[in-house]
Specification:
single chain, three-stranded antiparallel sheet, Phage tail protein beta-alpha-beta fold, about 35% helix, about 30% strand, elongated, three-stranded mixed sheet, alpha+beta
Amino acid sequence: MIMQRKSLIPAIAAAVLLASSGPGLAQVQVDGKPEMVHVEARDVTVREILAALHDKFNLSYRSDDALETRKTGAFDGPLQRVTGRILEGYDFAMKITPHGIDVLVLRQNQPGKSAVAVPSAVPVRPPMTAAEAKHFASGHFR
């Protein structure tokens, strides 16, 4: 009985050390400039990554979602592309201005639900008719 207890103590100690070291390993590092960003994430939430991007590049974001999806990986590229890759699995809108990027995270993608298309503010010109094509070919414009 005493032998079993002695062999159990190191196993319990190892389990406690492994359990306590998990959150300590979570980290995010952000380097670069907005034109070329390098993000390394190790078991961190999307919210923590966005907070790090906010601190480094003044990226602003808003969300009603908890943004608790955990990510691990390296992300490289322009800030808007990196942000889009980090938000994979979420529905979001991004506004890019000369002053920075503003991101609105709507919710996590839900399987079986279709995405909503937002109509363009610029009207789409319909294709030319045969008469218009003939008129254009003769050197006149629409």
